[in-house]
Amino acid sequence: MVTRDAPQRTTGDLIASIAGRVPMRNLHSLVLWQLGVAIVGGDYPEGSILPSDTELLARFSVSRTVLREALKTLAAKGMIEARARIGTRVLPRSRWNLFDSDVLAWHFETGPDVALLRSLAEIRIGVEVESAALAAERRSDQQAEALIAIAVGMGEAKTPEEFARADLAFHRMVAEASGNPFMASVSALVELALTAAFTISSPIEDAALTAAAVKSHGRIARAIEAGDAEEARLAMKAVISEGFARASSRMAEGKPARKGRA
């Protein structure tokens, strides 16, 4: 049964909070979340048929309209497909929109594997390394100053969420400073990977790691300020690689993800 009374904070709530969005708290979003997590988590494997509408209505105690809207949303994300006389089938993962904020959050809620983290890091390297190089060539004085200030401010964060917001602001500014509107648009996808990664590990949990992260972001900012595109590339790649190493190491140690905890 779906209820809106004292809802538990989820990974999706944390990602929304870091990115500056208001988490949805209606029946549609709650049914969508539970079904999405169940599909990603393997309760409904690829190729399987979802329970009938009658069964799902009984499970969630919602109206047929709410259920249908949730199923339509899952279909739009490439996760399910309704077929006449067959039912609603779970599609292969290759069809899922992995850049969708909900789909990514569901992966982190159920517990991502190292392969997913590596893939996310590779996407970030493919986009943000060149974004940093372009920023070094095109940034304004105000943008260069803002990057330096944000890097310094990261060291003043008191919680993982505060650190993540500052980190996200830094990478948004790099994308903006690149002067390429397409790069800034693609960066919105990168934000999902960045914010989701903080559900696993944050450098603020260790003073030495925090100092290292602040220093490495400062290196990017100084390279962009100096107009050194190649150094900006190297510095950005190092930051992304360090973040992947930190998260994968935490997983290897068997430490659980934050699951929505700040």
What labels describe this entry?
single chain, 262 residues, mainly alpha, two-stranded antiparallel ribbon, 66% helix, elongated, disordered N terminus, disordered C terminus
Write the layout of secondary structure elements.
Blueprint: H1 11-19, H2 27-40, H3 53-60, H4 64-76, E1 80-83, E2 87-90, H5 101-110, H6 114-138, H7 141-154, H8 160-177, H9 181-197, H10 207-226, H11 229-252
Antiparallel strand pairs: 1-2
Helix pairs in contact: 1-8, 1-9, 2-4, 2-5, 5-9, 6-8, 6-9, 6-10, 6-11, 7-8, 7-10, 8-9, 10-11
Q: Care to describe what's here?
A:
- With 262 residues, this protein is mostly helical.
- Helices cover 66% and strands 3% of the residues.
- It is built from eleven helices and two strands.
- The protein has a two-stranded antiparallel ribbon with strand order 1-2.
- Helix 2 packs across helix 5, helix 6 crosses helix 8 and helix 6 runs parallel beside helix 10.
- The N terminus and C terminus are likely disordered.
